[in-house]
Amino acid sequence: MDADGLPADELFCYLTGRRNEDIPYTHILSSMCTIPHPVAVKAHNQFMDTNLGDPGLFPGTASLEDHLIRWCADLFQAPGAGGCTTSGGTESNIQVLRFTKSVNGIKKPNIIVPASAHFSFEKACGMMDIEMRIAPLDDQYRMDHEAAAGLIDRNTCCIVAVAGTTEYGMTDPVPALGKIAGQEGIHLHVDAAFGGFVLPFIDDAPAFDFSIPEVGSISVDPHKMGMSTIPSGVLMVRDDHCFNNLLVETPYLTTKQAYSLTGTRPGASVAGAYAVMAHLGKKGMKAMVTGCMENTRRLIEGMEAFGISRRVTPDVNVATFEHVEVPKPWVVSYTRNQDLRIVCMPHVTRDCIESFLVDFGESYVPHTD
Amino acid sequence: MDADGLPADELFCYLTGRRNEDIPYTHILSSMCTIPHPVAVKAHNQFMDTNLGDPGLFPGTASLEDHLIRWCADLFQAPGAGGCTTSGGTESNIQVLRFTKSVNGIKKPNIIVPASAHFSFEKACGMMDIEMRIAPLDDQYRMDHEAAAGLIDRNTCCIVAVAGTTEYGMTDPVPALGKIAGQEGIHLHVDAAFGGFVLPFIDDAPAFDFSIPEVGSISVDPHKMGMSTIPSGVLMVRDDHCFNNLLVETPYLTTKQAYSLTGTRPGASVAGAYAVMAHLGKKGMKAMVTGCMENTRRLIEGMEAFGISRRVTPDVNVATFEHVEVPKPWVVSYTRNQDLRIVCMPHVTRDCIESFLVDFGESYVPHTD
Which residue of B has its CA nearest to A271? Predict the structure, then answer.
């Protein structure tokens, strides 16, 4: 920091320069974030200075959070479910481990996760001294539920299933895992950070939500397929008594206890998430998701026409292929197995897919061996 | 969520109604948040869709984070210090406990915190199975460093000092705690979430930063006295090797490892924090802090003129008094000891203080016993 400040015009000239160094979303095919919907940005601005860490000061903002939770309860088929907003999937998953670990009074807790689980579980388990037991995947990149059952012991406090995996866009066999969790009396958490705003809008999608009686909690991120502003996560719980043993006293705030992990937290992105869901409604969300799934199918067909085979037919809008390089300036990503991975977010339009396929076709040289 | 969406004009009419139910900052005297500076809001919008969880996509935004860290290193008098941005003080404190706990290889770790420590330490310790040992305060509401020394044993992995306590605005005796930490080889963390952007701009302020050789880390929140947008925290460490044992593999992102606690995280509020510091410079920050401190003194004098005595003369812009009720619509808070507490944030202007004193004087009935 210099002694003298920079005039606003010079500051924003500089900031524009830095912003232009970022890769534009027009060529980002690797991210589960997207350009937020204009109503999310407008609502974010309207609530920019609100702090839901002290909700008694912001009862209007807090009422939007309540609506959002009720909508997610309805969407996930348990109108009586409880929930809270978070900064995203990592915090949601940490919160689940906090309450499952403390409920059971287990001395050396462990959890079962699929090999496809997001790396946030490694962080959370390391931090909380929880052993992470990794269940292998089947040939469709879904958690092998029989192998998962074999990993359970009396210290297992949680089974994690993923709905819309980060790498392959698959959904674990939640009904089968539910049976196992129910028999053993173990909490079943569904990490639907990505799929939670996709699967409810697809006909004949795999079951993953509270309609499966043993599902105890579901996380979903509005800043992914909810087209909202960062940071925005939602953690839903079938029984909100879960949260009771997370409560700490919060002196000098307008509420006397809180169970959230963070203290000060933005109302702005909660308003953003509310705005998108209110504005699009279920029909608008379905139309958005339908478009992303159609683009995903078109991409897979287009790549297969070049002889690049899909790894799997995904449950959500994540397409994966055998390893192949793509031309600049397109930004793709590769899975731990080095498979090509492309996420067909809302900013990845049909035109964008067609441009990518043209560029890919011009640069691709098939193996001749 | 309804089947049909709400048109944008109806949506924003509804949102305006909810926003108007929030208490306006004009009457909030209880919060450590404030109205963000206009340059923070403008920069936040310019970087709204950036995700620093995947910094390779956003190198321009990431460069602002680097600048912010360098400025904080300079401000806290250790130009070679490392650091990272976080969602706020709670996450910063959790990160410190993550690396201090894992560095020492202690089986049953404990930390020493002052009785004035923020409630986030209770959450973090509960989650991470760390025993929290509470050192009492002296008559000036500062940590009793001799009592703290008496709580140390071979399982102590961290001593926490606070610079600008949430309740009384005091700064713990960091130099004395530094000597103790140095003798025992224990990490000393300074929670300067509030005071970190106040004390450097006050002449003759108590020492709290890296100029004390034993201070290992300092947290500060731009969304408090940095006048930036929520969520915005910074964690500074004297030696950034601290972060090494927090690293996890991050497949399918543009970077291969990350040590942050959260995954997706906003670049927008980092740009906001950068913008305020760039635009105000050290002189502008000092002018802002000087105004807040003058208003704090005026408030204390005004209340004492009514016979309401201060609890302590604060190091930062937090004023506390014997318990007394205040008239509506002013929103104040009370400490755990039921003392009246008023935070003189930048939105609490001199006019605001004078209006409050007039309203208070009209409603106050002195005890006659």
Answer: B15
Which strands make up the sheet holding A131-135, listed edge to edge? A82-86, A233-237, A215-220, A187-191, A156-162, A110-114, A131-135
Residue A262 Cα, gap to closest chain B Cα (Å): 6
ipTM over 0.90: yes
* Residues 277-316 (B) with a CB less than 8 A from some CB of A: 277-285
Residue of B11, B47, B54 with shortest CB distance to A278: B11
Cβ within 8 Å, pair A31-B54: yes
Residue B1 belongs to some domain of the structure = no
In tens, the pLDDT along B9-22 reads: 999 999 999 999 99
CA geometry: angle A40, A59, B272, nearest 5 deg: 45
Q: Are residues A106 and A12 in the same domain?
A: no
Give the 3-state DSSP-derived string for chain B, with helices as H, strands as E and coil as C. Answer: CCCCCCCHHHHHHHHHHHHHHCCCHHHECCCCCCCCCHHHHHHHHHCCCCECCCHHHCHHHHHHHHHHHHHHHHHCCCCCCEEEEECCHHHHHHHHHHHHHHHHCCCCCEEEEECCCCCHHHHHHHHHCCEEEEECECCCCCECHHHHHHHCCCCEEEEEEEECCCCCCCECCHHHHHHHHHHHCCEEEEECCCHHHCHHHCCCCCCCCCCCCCEEEEEECCCCCCCCCCCCEEEEECCHHHHHHHCEECCCCCCCEECCCCCCCECHHHHHHHHHHHHHHHHHHHHHHHHHHHHHHHHHHHHHHCCCCECCCCCCCEEEECCCCCCCCCECEECCCCCEEEECCCCCCHHHHHHHHHHHHHHCCCCCC
- Span B238-259, average pLDDT: 82
Structure tokens given for A339? 């498979």
Cβ-defined contact of B11 to A47 (cutoff 8 Å): no
Among candidates A195, A153, A201, which has minimal Cα distance to A317? A195
Please indicate whether, in this complex, the C-beta atoms of A264 and B229 are within 8 angstroms of each other.
no
Contacts of B284 in chain A (CB under 8 A): 5
Contact B282 A229 (CB under 8 A): no
Picking from B222, B253, B277, the residue at the C-terminal end of a domain is B277
- Closest approach of chain A CAs to the CA of B26, in angstroms? 12
Q: How many domains does chain B have?
A: 2
In a domain, B341, yes or no: yes
B244: confidence class by pLDDT, cuts 50, 70, 90? confident
pLDDT at A136 over 80: yes
Alpha helix stretches (DSSP H) within chain A: 8-21, 38-46, 59-75, 89-104, 120-128, 145-151, 174-184, 268-305, 350-363
Put simply, whether A254 touches B (Cβ < 8 Å) is yes
Q: Nearest C-alpha of chain A: how many angstroms from B324? A: 15
In a domain, A68, yes or no: yes
Question: First CA to last CA across chain A, in angstroms?
Answer: 59
Do residues A267 and A345 share a domain? no
Domain encompassing residue B129: 38-277
Q: What distance in Å separates the CA atoms of residue B17 and residue A312, rounded to the nearest whole number? A: 48
B31 and B43 fall within a common domain: no
Q: What are the pLDDT digits (tens) for A68-84?
A: 999 999 999 999 999 99
B75: domain CATH number is 3.40.640.10
Across chain B, mean pLDDT equals: 95
Q: Regarding predicted confidence, which is higher, B54 or A246?
A: B54
Do A22 and B61 count as a contact with CB atoms less than 8 A apart?
A: yes
The CA-atom distances, in angstroms, between A232 and each of A30, A66, B59, B232 are 19, 14, 22, 15
Q: Is A139 on the interface with B (CB under 8 A)?
A: no
Domain finish residue from B251, B277, B303: B277
Q: Could you tell me the pLDDT band of residue B261, with boundaries at 50, 70 and 90?
A: confident
